[in-house]
Amino acid sequence: MIAIVDYGMGNVASVKTAFERLGYQVMITDSIEQLEQASHIILPGVGSFQAAAEEINQRQLKEPLIRLAKEKPFLGICLGMQLLFETGYENGISDGLGLIPGNVNVIETEYILPHIGWNQLQIENQNQTFAPLEGKHVYFVHSFQAQTEQNYLVATTDYGAKIPAIVQNGLVYGMQFHPEKSGEAGVELLKLFMQETTMDGGVRS
């Protein structure tokens, strides 16, 4: 069972549908007990880093999410990916989940913000799992980007700046774009995430 974290700021219905189309059972929940029972946790998000961090804190989800991310596969999508990092600088300074070292700040580009539309993925660090997605287009909607070390980068995109598009730290993954809105490439990316983190019905350690 996949659990999608409901903290009032995610496009949870479309993410749920995307995983269900792949044949997985999915629940939308903010129950810590149900999150603990899940095999995989998905953290979507639409809005500002500051507001999302406040919602997670108010619902007393921060510490459970940090703990569970050490135990089972965890995927952050769009704003959910940004929350994986230590600090966000949108509307002030806010603490993230600290699951991946780095910060989130406004995209430094001459191009118009927000960055909205289809951009190509460039696979980094000779990552073999995601190599088939080299050059594929996925759908972005954001004005802020992660700033992290090269070894956490799985894929990037170019928008007048090198923007982390997929990141990974152990079982923690993040996708800055919306895989659920990215057509066949998005479907394949969700498949790869599930295949990479599941083996013979159990989670890879």
UniProtKB/TrEMBL annotation:
It catalyses: 5-[(5-phospho-1-deoxy-D-ribulos-1-ylimino)methylamino]-1-(5-phospho-beta-D-ribosyl)imidazole-4-carboxamide + L-glutamine = D-erythro-1-(imidazol-4-yl)glycerol 3-phosphate + 5-amino-1-(5-phospho-beta-D-ribosyl)imidazole-4-carboxamide + L-glutamate + H(+); L-glutamine + H2O = L-glutamate + NH4(+). Residues 4-194 form the Glutamine amidotransferase domain. The keyword ATP-binding does not apply. Pathway: Amino-acid biosynthesis; L-histidine biosynthesis; L-histidine from 5-phospho-alpha-D-ribose 1-diphosphate: step 5/9. Keywords: Amino-acid biosynthesis, Cytoplasm, Glutamine amidotransferase, Histidine biosynthesis, Hydrolase, Lyase. Pfam families: GATase. CDD domains: GATase1_IGP_Synthase (cd01748). Coiled coil: none annotated. The keyword Secreted does not apply. GO terms for molecular function: lyase activity. It is found in: Cytoplasm. Its EC number is 4.3.2.10, 3.5.1.2. The active site is at residues 78, 178, 180. Its main location: cytoplasm. PROSITE patterns: GATASE_TYPE_1 (PS51273). IGPS catalyzes the conversion of PRFAR and glutamine to IGP, AICAR and glutamate. The HisH subunit catalyzes the hydrolysis of glutamine to glutamate and ammonia as part of the synthesis of IGP and AICAR. The resulting ammonia molecule is channeled to the active site of HisF. PANTHER family: IMIDAZOLE GLYCEROL PHOSPHATE SYNTHASE SUBUNIT HISH. Heterodimer of HisH and HisF. This is Imidazole glycerol phosphate synthase subunit HisH. It comes from Gracilibacillus salinarum. The gene is hisH.
